Give the backbone structure.
Amino acid sequence: MATLLYVKTSLFGDNGQSSQLAEKLIGEWRQRNPQGQVVVRDLIAEPVPHLDAARIGALFSAAEGRTAEQQAVLDFADQLLDEVRAADLLVVGVPMYNFGIPTQMKAWFDHLARAGVTFKYTENGPVGLLEDKPVFLLATRGGLYKDSGVDFQIPFVKQFFSFIGLNDTREIYAEGLNMGDELRDQSLAQAREALAAQLQ
């Protein structure tokens, strides 16, 4: 049975543009995979804790001498990782907030990046350890950033996924969403067309 992991990151919930594009993509995927399973990781409704000294210490702790609190942190990180491993594809909402990704998404990244588990360093540089799979990145922005030289968001997201072994990223952009109704509607229509084309 095919499994899709939807990572939801919009502060505006289902009203967010990235959420609405994701629902469109997921709806079309369901039509093609009627027996498929959709797993939702809502990083806004259920935030992943941000790293602090205790939490990062738990992630690096050795099994011997690990406290119950540290084990709970590892178990939670393993749960997040198991969701990614079990999925056949990921759909990730990536709204732009102040030129970057939502802070909740960064916290999720910080629990996935684990040396010896999702990546390793070699004499030729880092190697991702996860099995590759499609990752749809739904990038929604109020302004125009793609190919402008000041898009620090999607290149970072692609770099992160590649770092852990997920190289098949597919970017869908909806830009200029706060630059007037005409541009917004045109951009969203183009994004919906791009989504449909990706699933052909």
Notes: The radius of gyration is 18 Å. Residues 68-86 form the longest helix (19 residues). Helices lie at 17-32, 53-59, 68-86, 103-112, 154-163, 181-198. The first strand starts at residue 3 and ends at 8.
